[in-house]
């Protein structure tokens, strides 16, 4: 099992329930592909460095998890088509 960190930016223009549901859906994707969430992180609203889709703010969420090497590619392919996700990045955690 490898350790990974997922950085997720969710649109600030959605309701709190929709934002929470989006993050929950990402957590479910991680567990569906054999991952174990070690730190669910928190979500906080921050100003973006540059506008994305005419938005200047977004909710940042950092999720740490452990998974097999093939899992991040599967998770990324599912996150890529989510409407409320502005940006995401999965990196291998090299603690």
Can you offer a commentary on this structure?
GO terms for molecular function: small ribosomal subunit rRNA binding; structural constituent of ribosome. This is Small ribosomal subunit protein bS6. The chain is of the alpha+beta class. The protein has one domain: Ribosomal protein S6/Translation elongation factor EF1B (Alpha-Beta Plaits), CATH 3.30.70.60. 27% of the residues lie in helices and 47% in strands. The protein contains two helices and five strands. The protein has helices at residues 16-32, 71-79; strands spanning 2-11, 36-39, 43-52, 55-67, 85-92. Strands 1, 2, 3, 4 and 5 form a five-stranded antiparallel beta sheet that branches. A hairpin with a 2-residue loop joins strand 3 (43-52) and strand 4 (55-67). The longest helix is centred in the N-terminal third of the chain and has 17 residues, at 16-32. It is globular and about 40 Å long.
Task: Summarize the structure in short.
Belongs to the bacterial ribosomal protein bS6 family. The protein is an alpha+beta fold and 95 residues long.
């Amino acid at each position: 099992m490898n350790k990974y960190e997922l950085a997720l930016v969710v649109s600030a223009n959605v309701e709190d329930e929709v934002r929470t549901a989006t993050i929950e859906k990402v957590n479910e994707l991680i567990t569906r592909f054999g991952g174990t969430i070690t730190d669910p992180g928190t979500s906080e609203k921050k100003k973006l460095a540059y506008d994305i889709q005419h938005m200047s703010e977004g909710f940042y969420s950092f999720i740490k998890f452990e998974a097999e090497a093939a899992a991040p590619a599967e998770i990324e392919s599912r996150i890529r088509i989510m409407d409320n996700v502005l940006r995401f990045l999965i990196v291998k955690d090299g603690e």
